[in-house]
Write the structure tokens for this entry.
Amino acid sequence: MTTGVVDRALVAETGAIPDGFKLIRDVMPLKIVDSKQVMKESAGEESIPVMRLTGVFQKADEKNANGRVYPLSVLTKAVEDLQEAITERRVMGEFDHPPDAKIHLENVSHLITRIWMEGKTCMGELEVLERMPKGAMLKALIESNVQVGISSRGIGDMEMKENDGEECYEVQPGFTLVTWDSVAEPSVSGTQLMVLESLARKKMMKSRKKRLSGKQITERKIITEVHNMLWS
């Protein structure tokens, strides 16, 4: 088993993974189940609408679709270690997984604002950064009811173990969470997320639905529309 302490901030900044550790990623579905108003004060004291998602981010002591199990003690410790960075609003997530462990600012789509344990379930909340190009894309997919996933990115080691009579990879102590990214393919079922959005956005969506009535809008067209809007 690999020992040592992972410097999460260094990994997020440089992508450097300590010797003996691996990049571990797992995906859960991001499902909209409700909507409410949320308004936030910006730096200029302007009240702006904010989209927030909340729900299951991770599960402990349960084999996932990737054949991995996160022991409760390991996941709980990783969640505790991330609290300070979350409080300081430093845990940014990307739109789709990058090829490495580094946080690439140009691809950031959301900010992780809360994570906590409820029994063996890691709950979380994220804020969509819709003024960022990739945040606007994520927002467009969610508003169009496209199924996306929330995927953890962490650094750690694994050992082959047996879980309920089946072989699995058990994540070992020392596992460090880096962030959660938004991705296309969920790999774990049975989770739900709640969307909190502004009343102004809700009205905008009703208007948009009327304009799009009777049309077949694909995910690619939605992303292209948002990109053109941002960079025109």
The CA atoms of residues 7 and 180 lie 17 Å apart.
